Every structure is written in structure tokens, then in C-alpha cells.
From TrEMBL:
It is found in: Endoplasmic reticulum membrane. This is ER lumen protein-retaining receptor. It comes from the Eukaryota. GO terms for cellular component: endoplasmic reticulum membrane. It is a multi-pass membrane protein. Belongs to the ERD2 family. GO terms for biological process: protein retention in ER lumen; protein transport; vesicle-mediated transport. Pfam families: ER_lumen_recept (PF00810). The keyword Secreted does not apply. It comes from Drosophila sechellia. GO terms for molecular function: ER retention sequence binding.
Length: 129
């Protein structure tokens, strides 16, 4: 009942097609499973864009949505620590996963700033006009 068709105009193919093409071009090994894994990593890094687009279109987000987006972004930012740990302990790193994680964390940075300055102070998340 809270779905708003008027504001949800993000074209998902703008995420799917570039991620699919990128996974076909830049992968570790050109096998079906590897290309699918790479596609999922690339898609995960930009999957939040439709939600951020909707928040920017409406100019505000409900409290539960704000907390959810912050939790998703925190998970990915903390995942960066996993890569540092794995590199230090196992001398292992994956450039595809690191690049995708950095892209995803950068996409969240503006939202993190608004969340910390507004939601944590008890205000509703409203984007500046």
C-alpha cells in the first residue's frame, strides 16, 4: 500500500545491461559460474541506486527506510575491513570485489552524512532542496 508508482521511475536496465557487459569483459576466468559471480558482484555494488533515486525523487525517507539503508551501507563498509584482514592474514585479495565494494561504499557516503546529521538527531531524513 505504500508503493508509489509516480516516483518509482528508475529504469533497472540501466544497471543490468552495464553490469552484464562488464562481467563478460572483466572477470577472472571466462566460465559460466565465474561470469555469473562477477555479474552478481557488479550488480550488488549498484543495487542501492534505485532506492537512493526514489529517496531523491520524493525528497524524504521514512525512519525505517533510513535505518535499513544505513544498515546496508554499514555492512558493505565493514566488509572493507574483511578485505584488509584477508590480505594481512592470507595474502589474498580480489580486485573485482574490492573495486565493486569501493564503488558501493562511495554511493552510500552522501546518505551516511545525511543519516548521521539528521536521523541520529531524531529528525526525519529530508534531502536539501
Amino acid at each position: 500500500p505504500t508503493y508509489d508508482h509516480n516516483h518509482d521511475s528508475f529504469r533497472i536496465e540501466f544497471l543490468l545491461v552495464p553490469c552484464a557487459l562488464l562481467s563478460l569483459v572483466i572477470n577472472h576466468e571466462f566460465t559460466v559460474m565465474e561470469v555469473l559471480w562477477t555479474f552478481s558482484i557488479y550488480l550488488e555494488s549498484v543495487a542501492i541506486l534505485p532506492q537512493l533515486f526514489l529517496v531523491s525523487r520524493t525528497g524524504e525517507a521514512e525512519s525505517i527506510t533510513s535505518h535499513y539503508l544505513f544498515a546496508l551501507g554499514s555492512y558493505r563498509a565493514l566488509y572493507l575491513l574483511n578485505w584488509v584482514y584477508r590480505y594481512m592474514v592470507e595474502s589474498h585479495y580480489d580486485l573485482i570485489a574490492i573495486f565493486a565494494g569501493v564503488v558501493q561504499t562511495v554511493l552510500y557516503c552522501d546518505f551516511f552524512y545525511l543519516y548521521i546529521t539528521k536521523v541520529l538527531k531524531g529528525k526525519k531524513l529530508q534531502l536539501p532542496a
